[in-house]
Amino acid sequence: MTSGDGVVLDVGALRMRYDTTEVLRDVTFQARRGEVLVMLGPNGAGKTTTLEILEGFRTRSAGEVRVLGVDPALGDEAWRARVGVVLQSWRDHAKWRVRELLAHLGAYYRPYSDGRTQKPWDTGELIEMVGLTGQAGAKISALSGGQRRRLDVAIGIVGRPELLFMDEPTAGFDPAARRDFHDLVHRLADLEDTTVLLTTHDLDEAEKLADRILILAGGRIIADGSADELSRSIAGEAEVRWTVGGQRFVHTTTESTKYVHELFKQHGDRIGDLEVRRASLEDTYIALVRRHESGESGAAVHTLAEVTR
């Protein structure tokens, strides 16, 4: 197990057992600095357990795990100051006001500033980032469910983490809040070089956010790659749609580029409404999970090369 080349998360043969039930079986993956990973999987697949082990909240049964170069089971306060966590739920402090709570929590990170990163986020800037400017002076008890979820995200990033874990962070978000959240994740990854690992059941969200998607089923990683790479690994075919002279045509092919080239050689600028569609992430996800459940998949897929070859 080696770390380097900007590797922030290094997980090898991770296993978790409760009595006789094995929840995680040989989970293996890496994440690099500034990368956004989205973990998908059915309920009970082990997503939350995986995050809790990486966060240092749960002790694994076996395997090697390095988070920012440290075994999370041994992480000290300085290590925790580099990690942000957005839980599915938490017991909030209803009587606190938003600005007061974030300023209070942020103060704990101040001793861990370094030459590269000034901790914590400025409270006003953080509140604006998560879209709570209008509620900055409000008591937490007065916030709506979606506003509380925005506050959860703010608490998770208040210390300007190098690595951010989020368990279903957009649950309860309306479409506008979800779009704002996506912008925030892209800002953290692109401008702050933050590595993000999140779980979600929203496949559209996964496709918009992820540099790489991990699919966990039966306690194993059964797929690892970008949405497009996973789509190509399953379908291998694309659906080409076009019109000529007002008549609509559809053709399925494994060589879409070549086929479209031949179309234009034959019909030229008479072609209209041209579309090339690959399997959606939803199609891919369902196919991979069903393949695994039926026993067709065999060994777990751990590397991008295995997915795409």
Automatic annotation (TrEMBL):
Transmembrane segments: none annotated. It holds the Pfam family ABC_tran. Keywords: Antibiotic resistance, ATP-binding, Nucleotide-binding, Transport. Signal peptide: none annotated. SMART domains: AAA. Residues 9-243 form the ABC transporter domain. Its main location: membrane. It is a peripheral membrane protein. This is ABC transporter ATP-binding protein. It comes from Nocardia speluncae.
